[in-house]
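Notebook p. 47: complex prediction with 2-acetamido-2-deoxy-beta-D-glucopyranose.
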Amino acid sequence: MWHLKLIAFLSFFLLFMHIPCARGADLRSDKLALLAFSASVPHGRKLNWTRTTQICTSWVGITCTRDGKRVREVRLPAVGLFGPVPPDTLGKLDALEVLSLRSNRLTVSLPSDVASIPSLHSLYLQHNNLSGIIPSSLSSSLTFLDLSYNSFIGEIPLEVQNITELTALLLQNNSLSGPIPDLHLPKLKHLNLSNNNLSGPIPPSLQKFPASSFLGNAFLCGIPLEPCPGTSPSPSPVSPSPPNTRSFWNKLSLGIKIAIFVGGGVALLLLIIILLVCIFRRKSVEPGAASASSKGKAVAGGRGEKSKGEYSSGIQEAERNKLFFFEGCSYNFDLEDLLRASAEVLGKGSYGTTYKAVLEDGTIVVVKRLKEVVAGKKDFEQQMELVGKVGQHQNVVPLRAYYYSKDEKLLVYDYVQLGSLSAALHGNKAAGRTPMDWETRVKIALGAARGMAYLHAEGGGKFIHGNIKSSNILISQEINACVTDFGIAQLMAPPHIYPRLIGYRAPEVLETKKPTQKSDVYSFGVLLLEMLTGKAPLRSPGREDFIEHLPRWVQSVVREEWTSEVFDVDLLKHPNIEDEMVQMLQVAMACVAVLPDQRPRMEEVVGRIEEIRNSYSDTRTSPEDKI
Ligand SMILES: *[C@@H]1O[C@H](CO)[C@@H](O)[C@H](O)[C@H]1NC(C)=O
Ligand SMILES: *[C@@H]1O[C@H](CO)[C@@H](O)[C@H](O)[C@H]1NC(C)=O
Ligand SMILES: *[C@@H]1O[C@H](CO)[C@@H](O)[C@H](O)[C@H]1NC(C)=O
Ligand SMILES: *[C@@H]1O[C@H](CO)[C@@H](O)[C@H](O)[C@H]1NC(C)=O
Ligand SMILES: *[C@@H]1O[C@H](CO)[C@@H](O)[C@H](O)[C@H]1NC(C)=O
Ligand SMILES: *[C@@H]1O[C@H](CO)[C@@H](O)[C@H](O)[C@H]1NC(C)=O
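Predicted complex, structure tokens below:
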């Protein structure tokens, strides 16, 4: 109650403060404008904007001027903004230079007070559903104007001519009509007017742009397109191909490129083929659906060329391109950003390749590209829903987002600095790696066990990791172990490449191919053995300390005489830890019991490792926190 009153008082206070200084704009008025915006535009993902926090340092998507006095950039791509942008909200940010609201679902029109903010130089509104005309009062400071993939109608305003600094004008995939104004813009480098309903001759000032800047406008003519009726044909200049992104992601499969960049003749051709296949399927599967849709006439007509554009425009295509973010995630990028990010291969696993992606704004994420997913879209989404529901735990790397299309399945995770346990244990010693000491190993074992126990308690106690191995235990800067890659095994084809590869797999899983919580415990046991022996259960190039059936090997060594032969030689250098190593070995051996019922539950494993750790800190009085 008291809280409410306080808030009411505060908002009144702010309101009154605001009125007198509405003209002398400052950070406070920027804040109010943004709060008004977030209050009136529904959004899928939470914006952590509150009155009480510092706008410049802790509001997601906001960048201030250097002196911290005004808001300079608002970047909210793909946060699920929905509906109209009300006037008198963003339009009041009169020091704004960059506004990015792309890949949302904004509708109605672009308020002219936003487009005309005098300081605005970059406006990114592509991939929304904005309609109405393009306002004629555009800021004359604009250098980058991207309104593509919306539903704008009417003509390209003549006033664009006066935006002399403009370097990019991207208006493709709207419903613009009328002639193209003769734009003498000396700095214009990127122009795309494709897929509109523009007509008439292409003005001489724009004839230097390639044909792909004008495609999909049935009534446009002249260089670089077909000559206009009634003019003598002249040789059209060779059109330069659109600039290639240098990014690593160029290696992505064709499907995703088509979806994103729809570029080049080959892609277009493929697209037509795909669309024709789709149309054919649609027609044969649900004959009613096509004709029921308003776009149905072209489809029903079956005229390939014409139906192509009409059929694919609209939501399916746009939605297909979207990354699905889980709730509570404050990332601020979309698929385009991700594809543009520079990427570095972190590892190649049985389920695909993992990349470290550094986005343009410096955000680092881990992207896993899955291969051989057997689950269909629906099953995939259901499983992701489950995985996404796994909440926050300091020993678990949460899945932040996923992308599913026929050709490409991507998972996005937080980046964890120090890499995997596998690399830390078996990394190249020649390269100066210091062997991991016992205390660190215990700490990591405990963290991983806690993460696993947490996972097993999720989903009503039914959640399964399915792929525990040392490369799926990541280590943070604070030497905190984090479990990753959970819940994916269920989507994959059972391993068929090395059917007899044992590694971390429980004996029953080799037959049933179905992981269970008990098989997770087995895998965890193998992981403990790996940490104790320093031997890897999976082969990898240049690794000699590989033992395929680690549990069996340990048993055979231990049976002969209970020796320290099994332990990692790097550990034996440390004094007085053999007792603890033996205790840990017992935990590990309990986990790798052949009969699933004889294995402990993860919770018990945690308890037993905690005991080892406690004895550890008792005897050695390390003041260190208990993880
Ligand atoms: C809001 O999210 C951003 C980006 O994740 C983060 O840096 C900031 O600390 C958050 N602010 C608050 C108040 O939680
Ligand atoms: C462009 O600017 C000039 C001078 O500022 C003005 O006279 C002219 O009307 C403007 N043109 C358009 C189309 O707004
Ligand atoms: C496209 O423009 C032409 C005239 O330029 C007009 O006849 C036609 O109706 C327009 N089509 C659409 C879909 O707006
Ligand atoms: C313009 O956009 C269309 C449709 O997205 C695309 O096919 C074409 O390659 C683009 N042209 C340029 C020059 O980027
Ligand atoms: C853009 O329009 C073209 C032609 O109408 C269509 O093939 C393409 O799928 C559209 N792109 C998007 C992303 O909507
Ligand atoms: C876009 O808005 C129009 C109305 O302005 C609506 O009919 C259409 O369904 C919307 N499209 C999407 C993809 O939301």
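Notes: The radius of gyration is 30 Å. Residues 438-461 form the longest helix (24 residues).
Next step: compare against the earlier run before touching the bench.
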